[in-house]
Design a protein that fits this description.
The structure holds 2 protein chains of 2 kinds.
Chain A: E1 3-6, H1 9-26, E2 29-35, H2 44-59, E3 65-70, H3 76-89, E4 94-97, E5 101-102, H4 105-110, E6 115-117, E7 123-124, E8 130-132, E9 139-141, H5 144-159, H6 164-175, H7 179-202, H8 206-211, H9 213-229, H10 240-246, E10 250-251, H11 255-273
Parallel strand pairs in A: 2-3, 3-4, 4-6, 5-7, 6-10
Antiparallel strand pairs in A: 8-9
Chain B: H1 2-9, H2 17-30, E1 33-35, H3 36-43, H4 47-62, E2 67-75, E3 78-86
Antiparallel strand pairs in B: 1-3, 2-3
Helix pairs in contact in B: 2-4
Classes of the chains: A alpha/beta, B alpha+beta.
Chain lengths: 275, 88
């Protein structure tokens, strides 16, 4: 774990002016959770965000809270935990604002909001868990195991057309499949579904759950399935329209407010991403 | 990332992944610790190459050739996270 430093003057001024302006216009407290491509949501963030919220509450109770997020994802357990903490400390409306990226675990985090603000450049992403190969360091989707099983099933059906040589090959392949890993991957997929369902019920579809529990739960399950395995690639861009069509509560705000959000992102991009 | 790599390698006039790797080592030999943004700046990388750099750095850290230090900036306006890279 590296150092925690206070923000330097160079980034503080233009950013703070814009944030204050947006806070006044939207009557919210704005908190930025921004990371470049080299960092991801991790367990240390849980205590950092908790400490930050406690500090903010010393001044004033948090009514409406806007989270401006830029992240490529990270630890799903930490993302879930942070979302719950943000939910607990926000007495009014909790909104996630995505100027550019909220992929993977950051998409999961956004599902904790009453709504998500997006516009043309914004993108969410699929939430299929990524498993890291401890030897090669390469990532693969837990979903791949499902595809592999479908592939083997297809081959087995072909082999059953009386091809004993092919059956021997299949038996050899199956012998080398690590069964525990298959189980782990399938559990990881269910684990993510559980988190997504919990978060979507918490705020975004709270009223629907109250008025028609069964229908609302089915609606949520459908969103979870689309987010978890509705796409072929983990890097798939889920833009404003796709996110809306998926059933998530996506807000497109007035141009004036969006322009301020975009300016905030440009400052972040200039100072942090391409200094 | 594989898709980006393919696009990148097919891009004429750009550095190859191997060259970026070598330039990062050269840069870190001359400088003690550099953030991701500083490396982008000093290598004068263009858009596509910046994405490649994230992957190159990640692989260099995984293989133990360079070290990574997390840098987290906390203010009342939020949390900003980046990394510093250095040679052991």
């Amino acid at each position: 774990m590296g150092g925690v430093i206070s923000m330097g003057k160079q980034i503080e001024d233009p950013m703070q002016i814009l944030i204050k302006k947006l806070e006044e216009k939207r009557k919210t407290k704005i908190v930025m959770l921004t990371m470049d491509g080299t960092r991801s949501i991790d367990r240390y963030m849980v205590s950092q965000i908790y400490d930050m919220l406690i500090e903010l509450e010393k001044e004033k109770e948090i009514e409406n809270l806007d989270i401006i997020i830029n992240s490529f994802g990270g630890d799903a357990d930490a993302a879930f935990h942070i979302s719950k903490i943000l939910h607990n400390h926000c007495k009014g409306k909790l909104t996630f604002i995505v100027p550019r990226f909220a992929k993977s675990a950051a998409t999961l985090m956004c599902c904790a909001g009453d709504s998500i603000i997006m516009d043309e450049p914004s993108e969410l992403g699929p939430v299929d868990p990524q498993i890291i190969d401890p030897i090669k360091g390469e990532r693969y989707s837990a979903l791949s195991i499902k595809d592999t099983m479908l592939f083997l099933d297809k081959i087995e059906k072909e082999c059953n057309k009386d091809n004993s040589e092919c059956n021997n090959v299949i038996r050899e392949v199956i012998k080398n499949i690590p069964l525990m890993e298959i189980g782990d991957n399938l559990r990881a997929l269910n684990h993510i579904s559980e988190y997504l369902e919990d978060l979507l019920k918490m705020r975004m579809f709270k009223e629907e759950i109250k008025s028609d529990k069964e229908n609302a739960e089915n609606y949520i399950k459908n969103i979870v399935l689309k987010l978890r395995e509705g796409h072929y690639s983990h890097s798939r861009c889920i833009d404003f329209k796709s996110a809306q069509e998926m059933g998530l509560k996506i807000e497109k705000i007035n141009k004036e407010d969006w322009d301020i959000i975009w300016d905030i992102f440009k400052v972040f991009e200039k100072e942090v991403l391409i200094k | 990332m594989k898709i980006t790599e393919t696009m990148f390698l097919g891009h004429k006039g750009k550095d190859s992944i191997k060259e970026i790797d070598e330039r990062v080592i050269d840069l870190l030999t001359k400088n003690k610790k550099l953030t991701y943004a500083q490396i982008v700046n000093l290598l004068e990388l263009e858009n596509g190459d910046r994405d490649i750099l994230v992957d190159v750095l990640s692989k260099m850290v995984f293989s133990g050739r360079i070290k990574k230090e997390n840098v987290t900036t906390i203010t009342p306006n939020g949390i900003g996270m980046t990394s510093k890279f250095y040679l052991d």
